[in-house]
Amino acid sequence: MPEPGPSVGTEATGSARFPDFFLVGAPRCGTTAMSHYLGHHPQVCFSKPKEPHFFSLLRQLMPQMTVADYLAHCFPHYDPQRHRAVGEGSVSYLYDDTAIATILRHNPDARFIVMVRNPVDLVYSYHARLVALLDEDEEDFASAWRLQKTRARGERIPKTCRNPFLLQYAEIGQLGKYLERLWNQAGRERCLVQVFDDFIADPRRVYRNILDFIGVEDDGRAEFPPRESNKVARIKWLQRWLKRPPTQVASFAATLEHQRRRKQGKRKSAVKRLRKRLLKWNTVYRPRPPLPRELRAELVETFAADIDRLGTLLERDLSHWKRI
Questions:
Q1: Which DSSP string corresponds to 177-230?
Q2: How high is the pLDDT of residue 8?
Q3: What is the pLDDT of residue 45?
Q4: CA quadruple 30, 36, 42, 46: dihedral positive or negative?
Q5: Is residue 246 in a domain?
Q6: d(CA 73, CA 64)
Q7: CA-CA distance, 175 to 114, in Å (whole number)?
């Protein structure tokens, strides 16, 4: 985790400003789509990339990066004349022990948005996403679910997994537990929770709720195309090199890119543009089969108590999430 530093509040650091809001979770709950919509709002400066993970359990991937580097790298497009809100969307922050406290040290007025979903559907979709990201090497969800205890002991962890916690599917689905912790850390009044069911039924209403919460005007967006599907790689070895190059290569490339951006500004390097094209070409979309009924029943039993906990927190009946 970053070392505690002086509180910079919402002051500018260099040419960028520390974020006002954080879309902290949960994964596979519409956060990518919402980040895309917010990123195109004229009054919002949204992080590029969407998930820097700077304050979270994935921090070890960039140990030398300072807060100033984080702001310069993720918000080079910040325009104080135009942007009224600055935000990012690292869903790992919801689960990290110290991320929220660290963020609040830098900006005590930071706001947090959480999108939640039936955890049974969440973890099934999340597993497929981890396979695509190379954090997971067990492509069969039922087998990956059975491996959780083994992996909690530090066994059967894929070499390309960024952090073993990511593979604890039953823990990732405990949305009530982690929302309650967030409220205790940040205060309920500075947190907004939106339910995925509502987002699917009326995306504009959920979008406007978030705009009101972060303090920007309605831009009139009327189209809300879905952003995420079940992605798989055409060629797995190519995906490994593009997504998880050897550590020394990745560190060297990150250092060169940071130096280049300081000298040349915002434009992406030719290497990054080529990598983006290759990733796009190497990605195909494949529908996921429905969960087998027996496995779904097991997951419902696993998450039933936390679904009740979340429903109590939100003062909302979520009992339909426990149907098999």
A1: HHHHHHHHHH-GGGEEEEEHHHHHH-HHHHHHHHHHHHT---------------
A2: 38
A3: 98
A4: positive
A5: no
A6: 13
A7: 10
Identify whether the C-beta of residue 78 lies closer than 8 Å to the C-beta of residue 17: yes
- What's the predicted TM-score (pTM) here? 0.84
Structure tokens at 232: 């798989």
Token code pair at residue 323 = 């149907």
pLDDT digits (tens, 9 = 90+) for 211-250: 999 999 999 999 998 876 666 666 665 766 676 776 666 6
Q: How far is CA 237 from CA 93, 121, 160, 231, 282, in A?
A: 30, 29, 12, 16, 10
Is 134 a domain residue? yes
- The percent helix, strand, coil of the chain (3-state, each to 5) is 50, 10, 40
CATH number at 136 reads 3.40.50.300
The one-character DSSP state at 13 is E
Tell me the C-alpha distance between 320 and 153, whole Å: 34
Residue 88 structural domain: 12-230+287-315
In a domain, 50, yes or no: yes
Sign of the alpha-carbon torsion through 72, 98, 247, 31: negative
Residue pair 246/160 in contact (Cβ under 8 Å)? The answer is no
In 84-157, where does DSSP find H-type helix? 99-106, 119-133, 141-146, 148-152
Q: List the chain residues with pLDDT less than 70.
A: 1-15, 59-63, 228-237, 239-241, 243, 246-269, 279-280, 282-285
Q: Is 324 inside any structural domain?
A: no
Looking at residue 3, the DSSP 8-state letter turns out to be P
Q: Identify which of 195, 192, 188 has the alpha carbon closest to the alpha carbon of residue 212.
A: 192
Number of H helices, E strands in the chain: 14, 9
Q: Is 261 strand, coil or helix?
A: helix
Whole-number Å distance between alpha carbons of 196 and 194:
7
Domain count, the chain: 1
